[in-house]
């Protein structure tokens, strides 16, 4: 939709990967709609995933005992977080929709993307206490996880060896994104692209492109335990 701003947080080492293709589809389709697209290519940026005291440029509030959460909160209020964090926070502030594009690692995100979440979505910027879940500071923004898996769709069912895929979405969508106030759209999961035919991979890309054509009309999922775990 013309005028909308989209941030794609992309976490894959290889531009020619299937994740790279999914990212390109999103850039092409959303750009064609008139959206403004920003891509944070975390590996290309050599983004620092470690949350350390180096993230604070000013004096620590308690130099005797370091607590990252406390110091990041204080540094945010004093505007003394490092530039790489501030730059990403500005991108999030500007975005109407944030798409996270990544391969599933151990039922979670790659370490570089986890580090982005740890460092960028800090207290004061993304939430406060009180000021989380429906009151999170990123309310009004949409978030979407676009994930590739190594396992097949059959593996990620209630009867499958890995369990229902919604189980591993709980900490990511609910515990991180919804906690910060995001309205969460249904995930785009591309199951086992390395195990299927070229035609099937093309079908996955086409399905993603087709979905993006009407993405602004989608309703967020209900961020409650029953969506993830059933009644």
Distinctive features:
231 residues, 13% strand, 6-stranded parallel β-sheet, globular, alpha/beta, single chain
Topology overview:
Layout: E1 5-10, H1 18-32, E2 36-41, H2 68-78, H3 83-94, E3 97-103, H4 111-120, E4 142-148, H5 165-177, E5 183-184, E6 188-190, H6 198-213, H7 225-229
Low-confidence stretches: none
Helix content: 25-40%
Measured between the Cα atoms of the first and last residue, the distance is 36 Å
Order of helices and strands: EHEHHEHEHEEHH
Q: Based on CA inertia axes, which overall geometry fits? A: globular
SS-based class: alpha/beta
Overall mean pLDDT: 97
Strand content: 5-15%
Strands, total number:
6
Q: How is the biggest beta sheet arranged?
A: 6 strands, parallel
Rg, rounded, reads: 18 Å
Give me the number of helical elements.
7
Give a structural overview.
By secondary structure, the protein is an alpha/beta fold. The protein has helices at 18-32, 68-78, 83-94, 111-120, 165-177, 198-213, 225-229, and strands at residues 5-10, 36-41, 97-103, 142-148, 183-184, 188-190. Strands 1, 2, 3, 4, 5 and 6 form a 6-stranded parallel β-sheet that branches. Helix 1 links the parallel strand 1 and strand 2. Helix 1 runs parallel beside helix 6. The chain is globular. It starts with a strand and ends with a helix.
């Amino acid at each position: 939709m013309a005028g909308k701003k989209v941030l794609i947080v992309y976490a894959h080492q290889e531009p020619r990967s299937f994740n790279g293709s999914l990212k390109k589809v999103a850039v092409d389709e959303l750009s064609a709609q008139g959206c403004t697209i920003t891509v944070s290519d975390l590996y290309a940026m050599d983004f620092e995933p470690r949350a350390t005291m180096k993230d604070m440029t000013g004096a620590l509030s308690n130099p005797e005992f370091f607590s990252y959460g406390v110091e990041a909160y204080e540094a945010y209020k004093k505007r003394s977080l490092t530039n790489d964090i501030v730059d990403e926070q500005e991108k999030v502030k500007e975005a109407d929709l944030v798409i996270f594009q990544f391969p599933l690692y151990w039922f979670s995100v790659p370490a570089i993307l986890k580090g982005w979440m740890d460092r960028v979505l800090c207290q004061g910027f993304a939430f406060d206490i009180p000021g989380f879940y429906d009151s999170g500071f990123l309310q009004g923004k949409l978030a979407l996880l676009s994930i590739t898996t190594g396992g097949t769709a059959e593996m990620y069912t209630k009867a499958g060896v890995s369990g229902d895929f919604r189980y591993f979405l709980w900490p990511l969508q609910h515990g991180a994104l919804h906690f910060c106030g995001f309205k969460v759209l249904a995930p785009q999961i591309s199951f086992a692209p390395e195990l299927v035919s070229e035609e099937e991979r093309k079908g996955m890309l086409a399905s993603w492109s087709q979905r993006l054509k009407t993405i602004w009309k989608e309703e967020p999922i209900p961020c409650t335990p029953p969506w993830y775990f059933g009644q």
